[in-house]
Amino acid sequence: MEMIACDDDQCTVVWWHYSCAGVCADTIPDTWVCSRCLPGTTEEIDSSPGPDPTVSRPPRSRKTRQKPKKTSETTDAVTTDAQPSAKKDKKARKPPKPAVKRPEAKFCEADALQKADHYFMSGLQQLQQHPICLGVYPTAVCMLSLVASLMAKTNTEALQDFCAATVSGLWFVITAGDSKYLKPEGYEILWRAFHKYRPEVNDKWIELLQAMGLYREGQHVHLVCQFLLQAVLHAIIEDRNKQDKPIDNPAETKSESLSPQEEQVLRYVSGYIPFSLFKNLNKQKNDTAMTYCKFLKSWKVDCSDETARTFLQYTNDWIDKQNRGGLFRVSDGVYLLFRAMEQETCKYLTKNNLKTFQGCDIQSTLLNNIKGSHRVQTYWCSLTQGKITGDTSTNLLNMTVKKWIKIRAKAFINVYLNLKKATHGNVGKKAEKALRKDL
């Protein structure tokens, strides 16, 4: 379908047909803004949100249709009521975020050509392990036979020339959308150029097999070519992105032991998270939400049920002093789960990692490391054994960990800002918002 996307982030329509936008495939501009998002159009729409409120409508009477009389009192009242709404609209309307440009290119075509043989050899190895080639049907057997023949002749001049020519052609495909910002439109241009380039490669592929004396007819020939072409394209894009914008992951540090005061606060947070999840899920009317609510409710324990003191009793000291009967007290097993999460979180939320947080998805990093922790999985399995399993258990774990990360990251930011205020003076509101946004 021929459509173009509006580059304004605040656009409510986003996608427009070529006929509605007045463009065609050959005349697509670098940046295009629809008529609804143009500055002049926006001001006209905002300045006239509807019919004039100062003009009242005639009364809907079947007997008489008299024109209403305009009075100064009604006009002033309506104008006064319209002023707050206009102010709210100005506050709610935010300037569009500037589109992100692609970083300065460091990976060039010469770098890709040096690894042309490696790209194709890697693609052949991936094809050997692909599920489509692990079957016993005739097409899979023919594909494996062709791959083995190509891998045995990787040093031939014809194959090396084909690899270099294909990488050179794919480079123009990859750079086709560089003039666009980092938006889906750039990738659409890339894939459009890729599909236009495929027929040319298919003809060269048949000529290569003929020059190497290999069988060049059959469905398996085109399947191998298609898989290789896409594998090489992905490999070049991956190398280019890594070199142009390397990803700085937060460094893992050795976590220190928690103090008794920190464990007491952690015990309180361990009760707040299931309480908050239960409160949100209890509003939903479906079987999954009811299952989650029943399971989260089982985490709660009463003080009267504790007949013996445990080695974690000291973590309840602060809660015992503050509780007036409304806190969500949890068992030791639930507390151990959140303590394992805290120990994993402390490895990454450190002052030394603040520089690497910019441009890094810290939530995704913490989520993967917490869920990948053996201790966290052990405590979670002990809580869910015989109660919830499969995707139900996995989804609830994701909800719990994300809730924990949100609370923990916000506390980390507040501590950092307080320390910065104490040492370097006040922090401006703009810097404070930007820091929260980055994390």
UniProtKB/TrEMBL annotation:
InterPro entries in the cross-refs: Znf_FYVE_PHD, Znf_RING/FYVE/PHD
Residue numbers spanned by region Disordered: 43-103
Superkingdom assignment: Eukaryota
Ranges annotated as biased composition (Polar residues): 74-83
Residue stretches of biased makeup (Basic residues): 59-69, 88-100
Signal peptide location: none
Name of this protein: Uncharacterized protein
Originating organism: Patiria miniata (Bat star)
